Amino acid sequence: MRLLHVFTSLAAASVILLGSWTLMTRADGVNTSIFGKWSPETHPVQMEWPALYDNVDNRPTPASYKHQSPSGVPISIMMTIFNQEGMIEQIVQALLDTTVGPYEFIAVFDNCTDESERLVQLVIDKHLETHPFDPNGRSAEGLTAYRPIVLAKTHYETLSNNVGLRATAYDYGVLIQDDMIMVDHGWDRHLLRPALGYDDVLAVTGRCAHNDYAENDKDITFPDKAGPGCGGHNYDYNLDDTFSVRDIANRGPLLLDMQKAHELDFFSEEYYPFEMDDHDLCLRGYQQYGWVCGVLPVSVHAGTSHRKTSNMGPVPQILRDAERVNIARTLHRHGPYLRQRMKHSEERKVVLEDL
Questions:
Q1: Which pLDDT belongs to residue 30?
Q2: How far is CA 12 from CA 15, 121, 147, 148, 153, in A?
Q3: Which InterPro entries match (predicted)?
Q4: Which member of 130, 188, 274, 344 has the lowest number of beta carbons within 10 Å of its beta carbon?
C-alpha cells in the first residue's frame, strides 16, 4: 500500500487559511464571479504535453485485466459541504450505512454558516458508539477515521475538492457531493474494481461518462454517453461487470487513483474554479499518459434539486457563466484532441465474484 501523506493528528478539525489562492468577495462574503473576465488572449492556457495520442496508431495499447479483490483495500472518501443542515444527516448516515471500507471520511466544510458541521459530528459520534475505530488502524472494513477540514473563507468547488484530495491518506480517493444519497451496500468496493484490475485507469465514476467532441471553435458536444446518471443523480441500477471507457468521467461519486491524480496536480484550480474541471483532468490524463476514465454505475439518489457546494449566489446563473467560459477554456486547452472523430470508447469487463 502506498501512503501518500502522513498525518500527526486526526482528532481536531483543521482550519485552512488559503492565502495563496485569493478570491474577490463582496461585503456579504459571497464570491464575486470571475468567469466573465477570462479570454484565451488575456490568459493563454495552451499546454505542452510530452505525448499526444492524436490518432489510433499512436494510442497506448489498452491495459490487460488483472483481477484483484477489492476486499480490504483502504480508500479515502471526501465530501465538500456548504450549508446543508436540512439534509446532511441523511446524506452522511447513508454513506456510513452503505460503505464497506476500510475508509477514512474527510468532510471539507466550505465556510458553512449553518449547523452542518455540528450535525455531521453528531452522526459520526452516534455511529462510533456501535462501530468504534480500530485503535491499531488495521480494520478490514468500516470507518477508520473521520477528519473534518474547515475552510475559513468560502471557495469555489474545484479548490474545495482539491483541499480534500490533497489530504487523503490512501491510494484511492472518492469524491461525493453533499446532496448524494448512496444506496448500494458495498458501492465503494464496486468502484474499486476497474482501478485495481487495469493499471491505466485514472478515474471511475458511478454516474456518467461520455466523450467530448468539438465540431467548431465555439461548442462542445457530449456524445457516446454511458451510465444511468447522465441525466442527473437520482436513479437505481443493478450492479454489473461492464466498465465503459470514455473521454470524461463526471464527478460524483468519482473514484481517483491518487498517485495519478497527484501527478496531474489534481483539478485545475486556476482555470476551472467551477464546472468542467473533471473534463480537464481526464483529458490531461489521457493526452499526457494514456490514462483512461469511465463509468461503472452504482445507484444514487438525489437529496436536493440542485448542488450547493459553494456559496456563489444563484446556482443556475453560476452554472451558465461557468459553462460558457469553461467551454472556451477547454477548446483552447484541448482543441486538437476534441476535434478528432476517433475516440477511445471501450467496454471493459471486471470480475464480480463477491457480489
A1: 33
A2: 10, 11, 8, 8, 19
A3: Nucleotide-diphossugar_trans (IPR029044)
A4: 130
Rg over alpha carbons for the chain, rounded to the nearest Å, is 20
Contact 154, 17 (CB under 8 A): no
Q: What CATH architecture applies to the domain 14-18+25-349?
A: Alpha-Beta Complex (3.90)
pTM, to two decimals: 0.84
Measured at the CA of 85, the angle between CA 302 and CA 166, to 5 degrees, comes to 75
Give the position of cell 483512461: 292
Region of residue 338 (phi > 0: left; psi between -120 and 50: alpha; otherwise: beta) = alpha
Q: By the 8 A CB rule, do 75 and 192 touch?
A: yes
Residue 334 to residue 319: CA distance in whole angstroms: 21
Rounded to whole angstroms, how far apart are CA atoms 225 and 241?
Answer: 17
In the numeric block, the cell 492524436 is attached to 54
Say how far apart CA 320 and CA 330 lie, in whole Å.
15
Task: Give the whole-angstrom CA distance, residue 180 versus residue 302.
Answer: 5
The mean pLDDT values, 10 residues at a time, for the chain of 355 residues are 37 35 28 42 49 52 83 95 93 96 95 94 95 72 93 82 94 95 96 96 96 90 91 83 96 95 91 84 90 95 57 58 81 86 85 74
Cβ proximity of 146 and 202 under 8 Å:
no
Q: Give the residue extent of every domain in the chain.
A: 14-18+25-349
Q: What's the rounded Cα separation, in Å, for the pair 108 and 265? A: 19
